[in-house]
Structures are given as structure tokens and as C-alpha cells.
């Protein structure tokens, strides 16, 4: 199975810590599946390296990294034949669902609250 996964907040929080809930879901339900990271980030060599390093550190079988540069992810997930997409952004989840791809909402309210408090 090919699955697509958002990066920021879905796999890694702004403070650099991993989203253990998503990682656990991937390990339990998608071990051996091909993973394509689809991030809203703008492309940069630094972004690619950071995502590759994270994937290696957490033993994720990432076959490709796609930067949408802020565009909605639905058409990209459909184009790569994703069967399931993990994300924390409602707009992206809606866009992906409209393309007929199964979605998993990874929004973590506690983590968002913690980050807001840290930045006050």
C-alpha cells in the first residue's frame, strides 16, 4: 500500500519532537507500506535533509518527499496513487478526501495548546 503523510505537526512538532501518536499508528497499521511525505513547505535542500534525517531516525520507509509550496494536497495525493493520507490540516484533509483518498486526521489539540503557550 502507498500512503502519504504530512510532515509538520503530523510527524514532527515545531519544537522538533516527534508526534508519537502518528508514528505509532504508522508502525502498527502500515509496517512495510511505502510512505510518501507530502508537505506544504516550500522546497529547499534543508527541508529535504531535515525530513530525510527524521525519517531515518524513526525508521520510516520514505520513498519520496513532495513539497506543495502551500498548495492543497488532494491532487498530488491522487497523482501518486495514495490509498491513505495522514494530515493535521482540515483544508488539506478535505482536498484529499475530495480526490477519493482515505484520510486520517492527526490533529493534536494538546500539542497545539502547548506550542501556543510556549510562544506567548
Brief descriptors of the model:
5-stranded parallel beta sheet; Rossmann fold; alpha/beta
Brief write-up:
With 120 residues, the chain is an alpha/beta fold. The chain has helices at 20-29, 45-57, 74-79, 90-98, 109-118; strands at 2-5, 34-39, 62-67, 84-87, 102-105.
Structure description:
With 120 residues, the chain is an alpha/beta fold. It has a single domain, classed as Rossmann fold (3-Layer(aba) Sandwich), CATH 3.40.50.1000. The protein is 40% helix and 20% strand. It has five helices and five strands, in the order E-H-E-H-E-H-E-H-E-H. Helix 1 links the parallel strand 1 and strand 2. The longest helix has 13 residues. It starts with a strand and ends with a helix. The C terminus is likely disordered.
Amino acid at each position: 500500500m502507498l500512503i502519504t503523510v504530512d510532515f509538520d505537526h503530523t510527524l514532527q512538532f515545531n519544537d522538533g519532537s516527534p508526534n508519537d501518536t502518528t508514528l505509532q499508528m504508522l508502525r502498527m497499521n502500515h509496517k512495510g507500506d511505502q510512505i510518501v511525505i507530502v508537505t506544504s513547505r516550500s522546497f529547499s535542500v534543508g527541508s529535504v535533509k531535515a525530513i530525510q534525517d527524521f525519517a531515518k531516525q524513526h525508521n520510516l520507509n520514505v520513498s519520496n518527499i513532495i513539497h506543495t509550496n502551500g498548495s492543497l494536497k488532494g491532487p498530488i495525493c491522487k497523482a501518486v496513487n495514495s490509498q491513505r493520507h495522514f494530515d493535521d490540516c482540515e483544508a488539506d484533509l478535505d482536498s484529499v478526501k475530495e480526490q477519493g483518498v482515505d484520510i486520517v486526521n492527526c490533529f493534536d489539540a494538546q500539542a497545539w495548546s502547548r506550542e501556543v503557550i510556549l510562544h506567548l
